Amino acid sequence: MIFQDARFLKSAPDLQHCPDDGLPEIAMAGRSNVGKSSLINSLTQRKKLAKTSNTPGKTRMINYYLIENRFYLVDLPGYGFAKVSRKERNRWGKVLIEWFLNRNTLTLTLVLIDSRHNPTELDCNMIEWLAGNKIPFAVALTKCDKISNNKQQQARQATHSLLNRMNIEVPVTLCSATTKRGIENLAELIDEFSRVDGQFAN
Ligand SMILES: Nc1nc2c(ncn2[C@@H]2O[C@H](COP(=O)(O)OP(=O)(O)O)[C@@H](O)[C@H]2O)c(=O)[nH]1
Ligand SMILES: [Mg+2]
User: Fold this and answer.
1) Is the pLDDT assigned to residue 37 strictly greater than 80?
2) Listed residues: CB within 5 A of ion ligand 2
3) Could you give the percent of the chain with pLDDT greater than 90?
4) Ligand 1 touching residue 41 (CB < 6 A)
5) How far is CA 136 from CA 54, 100, 111, 130, 193, in A?
6) Does this model's pTM top 0.90?
7) Is the shortest distance between the CB of 38 and ligand 1 below 6 Å?
8) CATH number for position 56
9) Which domain holds residue 172?
10) What is the separation, in whole angstroms, between the first and last Cα of the chain?
């Protein structure tokens, strides 16, 4: 399954500027450069729908993509980008917290983690915070084309162990925007969550 019809709707600087049509939304969260925009492009089979970049930290907006006229994929600003000022980081932290806690149409968040590295402290904070606030999420381990099959399984295991220690049970999917591995699974998960009522977030 690939989402056929996809178009960019808008970039919102904060919650107040997000769409108010009530359509369900699935968000991509994760560190800058982890592959959020590339994943949106893979899911929609479009090369340049979402802007990808080698210069992390460029996406300072909440970007909305309308899929099949029935739900949104949301490209969230990446966290953990060192080169922005502390003030800017704090502002974004507040914007995102407000967004997550009040976005009633949010049905699923995909937390993207680079499969080549152990989850960072920021990744762990994100996961614990989402779980603590009862915001439904799943984990996608990105760029798995860059590591061997063995390392891929190790990465999956390490993530499951981490989640177990936190007492969290959510799907973990290895994926690659390059080989398209895992994209089909993620598309099915997204499709499922695009059909539930967004009444989870508070
Ligand atoms: N090899 C490989 N590179 C990827 C993959 N996904 C993203 N990238 C590259 O990683 C960089 C950052 O990707 P991007 O989607 O812009 O990350 P974002 O900041 O999270 O939106 C770009 O140079 C992408 O081409 C992947 O699955 N495999
Ligand atoms: Mg991006």
Assistant:
1) yes
2) 36-37, 59
3) 75
4) no
5) 29, 11, 10, 7, 10
6) yes
7) yes
8) 3.40.50.300
9) 6-193
10) 31
